[in-house]
Design brief:
It is built from 2 helices and 10 strands; from the N terminus they run ααββββββββββ. It is mainly β and 153 residues long. The chain has one domain. The chain has a 4-stranded antiparallel β-sheet.
């Protein structure tokens, strides 16, 4: 997974410093586990969603050797609301701010003829003020060097 936590390790900080888990943190851990991930290797990144400044959490985690998942969760009156859930058929699931818009990027492989040499694409999901919607899909440029196929972007 390629992520830039930007100081989003509040969960790890809480665990290491105080040994506590808030109700929200326990809920986020449960959501990760229920989706096949491990909270111990997940990235939990707080994000403020425009236009109303809604606080949410982006959960990024691997779910196998060649797969990863992302969930965006907000809490309304103490109850979790999953605003987005999706996955990649590669380890490359990403979250970033593009032109001031929270954006999720899922990388997919067509596995033809196999995982390593299959064509890859990136699906972009941008926050529209209410939900994350698919905005575009781009091919991942691939190069071959020394007999290996790799991302050359």
């Amino acid at each position: 997974m390629r992520v830039t936590p930007r100081g989003a390790s509040w969960l790890l900080f809480c665990l290491l410093i105080s040994g506590c888990l808030s109700s929200q943190q326990r809920t986020l851990n449960r959501l990760i586990e229920e989706d096949g991930g491990s909270p111990g290797i997940a990235v939990v990144e707080p994000v403020v969603l425009p236009p109303h400044g809604e606080q949410a959490y982006v959960l990024l985690y691997p779910t196998g050797v060649h797969a990863s998942r992302v969930q965006v969760v907000a809490f309304h009156q103490g109850k979790p609301t999953v605003l987005f859930a999706g996955g990649s058929s590669t380890p490359d699931t990403d979250f970033r701010i593009e032109q001031e818009v929270p954006t999720i990027i899922l990388e997919q492989s067509d596995y033809k003829p196999d995982y390593v040499t299959g064509k890859r694409s990136r699906e972009f999901y941008a926050w529209n003020g209410a939900t994350f919607t698919h905005t575009r899909t781009e091919p991942v440029p691939q190069c071959e060097k020394d007999g290996y196929v790799m991302d050359c972007s």
